[in-house]
């Protein structure tokens, strides 16, 4: 961003720092030795080996950060020399070195790898406790359906309706999405409950699949990867990581689990899964072969993207294909979907800054505002320099205050979405399902009002699915440049 500013208009001390940063060079990260273990010839073992190996890779290339939200950047072998030089300059201005991360090494690893480790750990616990062949325990439903899956739907409000000035950007989209969702839902449900739930299920599936692709796209943009071959390999791998398990599911109905209601998926012939399976393994092999080649040959690692692809493939395969269990599907599917989304919304609403030098309408700031922005950056650098000379007690105090502020905001954010999720599920249970009176109270007799309540309660989900197709597109949301460093 500062490289685009006319240097003659800068104050002298800012111009000197700007020119010095432009000429700086960033060394490539060095990997001391291969962190990857020998991979099993078994396909499932192959994926497990990649995830385990990721720990070693991340240990070698991840760098510590004072703030849990301080992100990093790196050069990409897919970029032209001029593009790499521009990235080097931008990285220097941000003080960034090392592999690319969307938020920071700690936050990315916790959100993507941590959620997968929790999912797989719970799967192992369920296997040892015998829950795989039983109904999903109520504590699992509360912990992951209520507090993660339903809650992350309401997190969209913190991205759209609770952001000052956001609604005015797309008033028709943000206003009509819930209204049209209810009208269309009411029309479909009044004709057929089966088609209503089937349509809602496939919208949810599309949303889940697209979200995993979205993470890969963000990591590619963050690293500046623009090669067409790499783009095709990444896209095919992440899509098949989710689509093949879904095709297998459709070809092996009925299963011991379902998306919303039993029978909400249509049948596919077994041939579909058999034809797609070798393509699935080939696509994943090509992805990780290219990732290792880029790492060892070009010294370019994108560990966050690798984690997303590996954990998506592993969790979806185990939860849908390898194990036929409602408990297994719940813990492997919901956590890795909902937790990273909550992190993204929290970052956007409470952590994001104006580092992309754009206002809320996406227009360039004027020269005075840019100079003020640079003054703030220089001041931050001077503060960081003086911070290096601070005593250990002073450093601990600064870090403690930062973490305390984040903790208070996280509690407020999660408390709000959990309260909204509980309110929705209370209406579902007392009015429709009548399954958990111990948590929500006695049931209601609605009579003909059921035909209105069901599509009405589905509005938050429909709105979430629709708006997600608009609010995370980088081209129409310049604020996301702060996460990708792309102008």
The percent range for strand residues is under 5%
What order do the helices and strands follow? Answer: HHHHHHHHHHHHHHHHH
Kindly report the average pLDDT value. 79
The general outline is: globular
Tell me the helix content: 55-70%
Task: Kindly state the number of beta strands.
Answer: 0
How far apart, in Å, are the first and last alpha carbons?
A: 7 Å
Sheet with most strands: none
Number of helices: 17
Are there runs of 5+ residues with pLDDT below 50, and where? 1-66, 71-97, 353-374
Question: What is the number of domains?
Answer: 1
Radius of gyration (Å) = 24 Å
Structural class: mainly alpha
Structure description:
By secondary structure, this protein is an all-alpha fold. It has one domain. It has helices spanning 12-22, 43-61, 81-94, 105-129, 138-159, 171-191, 193-223, 228-251, 270-298, 303-322, 326-351, 367-388, 392-433, 437-440, 450-457, 459-471, 481-484. Helix 4 packs parallel to helix 10, helix 6 packs antiparallel against helix 7 and helix 8 (228-251) runs antiparallel to helix 9. The termini are close together. The model is unreliable at 1-66, 71-97 and 353-374 (pLDDT under 50).
Can you lay out the helices and strands and say which pair or pack?
Elements: H1 12-22, H2 43-61, H3 81-94, H4 105-129, H5 138-159, H6 171-191, H7 193-223, H8 228-251, H9 270-298, H10 303-322, H11 326-351, H12 367-388, H13 392-433, H14 437-440, H15 450-457, H16 459-471, H17 481-484
Helix pairs in contact: 2-10, 4-10, 4-11, 5-11, 5-13, 5-16, 6-7, 6-15, 6-16, 7-8, 7-10, 7-16, 8-9, 8-10, 10-11, 13-15
């Amino acid at each position: 961003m500062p490289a685009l500013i006319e240097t003659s208009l800068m104050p002298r001390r800012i111009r000197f720092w700007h020119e010095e940063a432009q000429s700086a060079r960033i060394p490539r990260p060095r990997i001391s030795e291969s962190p990857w273990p020998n991979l099993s010839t078994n396909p499932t073992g192959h994926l497990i080996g990649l995830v385990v190996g990721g720990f070693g890779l991340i240990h070698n290339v991840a760098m510590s950060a004072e703030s849990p939200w301080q992100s990093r950047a790196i050069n990409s072998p897919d970029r032209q020399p001029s593009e790499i030089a521009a990235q080097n300059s931008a990285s220097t201005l941000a003080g960034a070195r090392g592999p690319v991360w969307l938020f920071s090494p700690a936050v990315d690893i916790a959100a993507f790898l941590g959620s997968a480790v929790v999912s797989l750990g719970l799967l192992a616990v369920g296997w040892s406790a015998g829950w795989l062949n039983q109904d999903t325990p109520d504590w699992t439903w509360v912990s992951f359906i209520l507090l993660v899956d339903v809650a992350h739907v309401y997190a969209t409000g913190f991205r759209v309706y609770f952001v000052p000035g956001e609604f005015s950007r797309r008033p028709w989209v943000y206003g009509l999405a819930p209204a049209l969702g209810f009208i269309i839902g009411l029309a479909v449900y009044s004709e057929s409950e089966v088609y209503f739930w089937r349509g809602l299920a496939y919208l949810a599936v599309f949303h889940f699949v697209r979200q995993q692709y979205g993470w890969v796209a963000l990591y590619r943009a963050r690293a500046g990867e623009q090669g067409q071959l790499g783009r095709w390999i990444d896209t095919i791998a992440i899509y098949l990581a989710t689509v093949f398990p879904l095709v297998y599911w459709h070809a092996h109905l009925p299963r011991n689990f379902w998306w919303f209601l039993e029978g909400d998926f249509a049948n596919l012939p077994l041939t579909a899964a058999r034809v797609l399976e070798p393509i699935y393994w080939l696509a994943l092999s090509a992805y990780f072969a290219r990732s290792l080649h880029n790492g060892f040959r070009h010294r370019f690692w994108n560990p966050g993207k690798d984690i997303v692809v590996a954990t998506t493939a592993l969790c979806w395969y185990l939860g849908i294909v390898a194990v036929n269990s409602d408990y297994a599907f719940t813990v492997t599917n919901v956590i890795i979907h909902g937790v990273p989304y909550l992190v993204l919304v929290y970052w956007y609403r409470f952590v994001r800054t104006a580092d992309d030098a754009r206002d809320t309408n996406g227009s360039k700031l004027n020269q005075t505002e840019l100079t003020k922005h640079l003054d703030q950056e220089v001041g931050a650098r001077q503060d960081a320099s003086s911070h290096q000379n601070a005593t250990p007690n002073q450093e601990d105090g600064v870090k403690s205050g930062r973490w305390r502020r984040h903790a208070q905001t996280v509690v407020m954010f999660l408390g709000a979405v959990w309260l909204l999720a509980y309110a929705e599920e209370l209406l579902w249970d007392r009015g429709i399902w009548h399954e958990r009176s111990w948590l929500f109270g006695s049931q209601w007799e609605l009579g003909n009002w059921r035909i209105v309540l069901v599509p009405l309660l589905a509005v938050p989900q429909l709105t979430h699915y629709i708006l997600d197709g608009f609010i995370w597109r980088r081209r129409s949301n310049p604020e996301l440049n702060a996460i990708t460093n792309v102008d």
